[in-house]
């Protein structure tokens, strides 16, 4: 029986049968120390969690919200819900109480599993909602340790058998760059069929080890870093926290790592900053290794690249455990300079594309046909076509059923032929798909020219001194941009010159810093048409953040929020 015809519980049982005493999970006990959980042990733990959840008198189809930081308890609770036919509603732990309550109310969740007392407080007291602590004294996890007698293995497997592949597995609320989030309904078969077909694009197997650090509440990590590895018999190590990530990388030594471009950019900035602080010889070796490695990556002639890679590149690869086969980058567009930097040191980055509504994965760059300026080749079983206006349309078993109790929004998103309208603008380069912009983000200048801000922003961020950029100009004569400098890189550069950089606020007032950024803006402009060029820019002393409401939990810029917050700065650039 193919994956397309089974539910997630059956997928877990199949992996238990195939991989038994092999490591399924690596659970952090303290910094750098992990406990191994085998597939057989994991299945038994899921059964115990299922018994505790069953005691809450939930029926198949009932919604259970999970709000908490990544942990093995989050994962086990999710799997347990899937085996009982419950519909999981993940909520980002960073969301404030009012947004968490909106999702719980909108989804009709009767139970919330909260990862901490802080998370409990966000939904406690909602009418008709029971809030359970996921871990700690009296929690689901603690009760599961003593469970296992009431729900026998036979009874549990019978519950699993009663769940149909077309039943809902989850309702995942979109990040909502505008307006209230909408709940995308995904079936069991959306995950299991995709787990089967994606293997033609993403060659993973039971010998691979993942390190999970992205939020499981996001569809990308939920599918590709949570369900998928277990379906194929791989091992998942759970990072203790972002603070322990550097040590966890050394301890888990992943072969595959899911990430977002911002993580890669941050890693690159730290490497560059460290090299700038190094003694002259080491700094020269790094610069030569980067230069020659980049030439090799581009297919140009090189000198001493092998020796330089052994001296410099291996140290960089060791920082991610020393055996990484590739990063898988998703969630946002990856700037080319990032892929180039990692490629220079023999660290492969495979960019992919997908949305919440398509169960995260629509296309991926396979390792043997990796074109980083694209988002890869559509996955087997996923149909992709470009509409007359350039919009990317997607169809297949991994497509959502629709938005929860929003028939009009569903009809607007999915046409009569079953095509999901992504809102992204793209084109094919051979078999590879390219994203050129967001349909709703197109800027129309006063002269009628249509401008794609994502391309401008991507070119700006290729500059070493530019960390973040947001372009504006709708209805105006020209394009202007808000720019957050790459403070770590600039600080290291100034210190290398013997200059005290001061605070971030002081740095953006310095003429030499402004000159660095201006040089990178001009470099981007040379690659743009006249009407696309950034004529004016303003430096900001603070990065955009989730807490301030400027980024979605998946780190996409909320353009409207940024525009409103910096209205005076934008207006002054447009005078």
Report the CATH superfamily of the largest domain.
ANL, N-terminal domain
Catalogue the unreliable spans: none
SSE class: alpha/beta
Number of domains: 3
Strand order of the largest sheet: 11-12-13-14-15
CATH architecture label of the largest domain? 3-Layer(aba) Sandwich
Number of strands: 25
Q: What's the tally of helices?
A: 21
CATH topology of the largest domain: Rossmann fold
Could you report the average pLDDT, rounded to the nearest whole number? 93
Shape type = globular
Query: What is the share of helical residues?
Result: 25-40%
Main beta sheet: strand number and arrangement? 5 strands, mixed
What portion of the residues fall into strands of 2 or more residues? 15-25%
Cα radius of gyration in angstroms:
24 Å
Oligomer: single chain
Give your account of this protein's structure.
This protein has 575 residues and is an alpha/beta fold. It starts with 7 loop residues before the first helix and ends with a helix. The mean pLDDT is 93. The protein is built from 21 helices and 25 strands. The chain is globular. Helix 1 (8-19) runs antiparallel to helix 2 and helix 8 (188-197) crosses helix 9. The strands form 7 sheets. A 5-stranded mixed sheet has the order 11-12-13-14-15. The chain has a 4-stranded mixed sheet with strand order 2-1-10-9, with helices on both faces. It has 3 domains: 3-187, Rossmann fold; 261-322 and 324-439, Rossmann fold (3-Layer(aba) Sandwich); 442-573, ANL, C-terminal domain (GMP Synthetase, Chain A, domain 3), CATH 3.30.300.30.
